[in-house]
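Backbone-to-sequence.
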């Protein structure tokens, strides 16, 4: 069964950059669309971005133009490049498998095989 592990989080200054990685095991990621999500304390988990089997990508408005999702099926990896980071980007970031067909929408309720998350903190 598919397992996902996130890595790459850390503390960065506003305006900085960070690249998150999502590594799959147990199954090939080529069979799955993968989404990135984030959750801050006291807030609901929200979708950030996703990439489908045909390498099409979706982004929510708050990160569009700043974040880039990509996948490398040969390495069983999905990445999230985050640029121009803002304090409001601070959250635990998760990857998961699910549908990625509606432009601008990444719905957590439709996803499964959640990773453990990696903390991203944007602060001076």
């Amino acid at each position: 069964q598919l397992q996902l592990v996130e890595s790459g989080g850390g503390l960065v200054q506003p305006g900085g950059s960070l690249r998150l990685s999502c590594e799959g095991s147990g199954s090939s990621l080529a069979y799955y669309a993968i989404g990135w999500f984030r959750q801050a304390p006291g807030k609901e988990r929200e979708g950030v971005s996703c990439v489908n089997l045909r390498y099409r990508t979706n982004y929510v408005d708050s990160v569009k133009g700043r974040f880039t999702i990509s996948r490398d099926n040969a390495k069983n990896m999905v990445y999230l490049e985050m640029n121009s980071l803002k304090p409001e980007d601070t959250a635990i970031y998760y990857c998961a498998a699910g549908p990625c067909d509606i432009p601008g929408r990444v719905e957590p309720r439709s996803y499964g095989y959640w990773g453990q998350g990696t903390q991203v903190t944007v602060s001076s």
